[in-house]
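Researcher: Next entry: Glycosyl hydrolase family 88 (Salinadaptatus halalkaliphilus).
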Amino acid sequence: MTDSLPELVDRVAERTLDRNMESEDWRKAVAINGLLVTGQKNCIDAAQRLVDRSIETQTSSGYLSYGSTDPVPASVLDPAEWPDYDSGQWQCNGATIGQSVLEFYDRTGTQRYLAAAERQYEALLDADRTADGGISYNSHVTELWVDSLYMVPPFVAQYGTITDDADAIDEAITHITVQANHLQDPHTGLFRHIWREQPNSFPESTFWSRGNGWAAAGIIDTISILPDDHPDREQLVDVFRDLCSGVVTKQDASGYWHNVLDDRQSPLETSGTLMFSYAFGTAVEMGLLDEDPYLDAAQRGLDVCKGIVDSEGNVQRIAMPPGGPGVGLGTASFGQGWFLLAADPLGKQK
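Model: Predicted structure:
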């Protein structure tokens, strides 16, 4: 018999606390976000230590947690048509930690958190961009990656809200709308993985599950930060609803989603499933999606993922980076975090 959700949350959280995340950035950031939503003091204290260390290792350019300057090893660039990232700055990764940096500024009022967030924000302002203003995921190759919809807009919108900087809020909205213009398929509402500016192409064009999860979670988190009367809010709501209407139809009868949403031969995969459960549950709670069919889909997704937590608290069947088709399944810090994040809004619905 599967353990109760609170028991599983405790087990996953405890295992997350034991992980060595020193050299991680976005992976660690999701784990931190998950630890925070538990509300447990030991988890919050651990999250603060991880954030403090990310600030200690912030680069002179402003990128948190060592700066993500390492190239992607050739061994993971499969299939061969992926671009050659032999150098360059990963420009969006560190901003994912910026969300929790601002969270601890809000909790403590300590200025060093705001100063670190400001440095990370300024790094984004200095980043290489596409011609229409989207922040390129990498400085060596001008591309938009769907991943950055979670990494950049929630942090930038929150920074703008805290500092009363309307330009920062506009940056968050621009990042979403530019990505939607290039990556969101007008027929299905789903997002493709990577668009490359020159030549105008999709080096990785699949409807990758976690990629669409990044989009859904990042957009709903950004909407939750914007004032209800913001003039661009409804545009983001429309993008989000179009995405969700495409995603919900791809759910497998098991409750999982496949690693590639429209490829039933690709494996059933946990991280995307949890991200959709989180985004659907959060949006239903906000009144932006109808309970039918989204709350049921979210609950079935979380319920089936409860069975993938092992006795040590590892969340299994996570598609490993760099994502997309053909990658192996395993465990990862962000998988731990997404279980905790998905359990939060759906636990409240009980």
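Model: Note for the record: The domain at 5-345 is CATH 1.50.10.10 (Glycosyltransferase).
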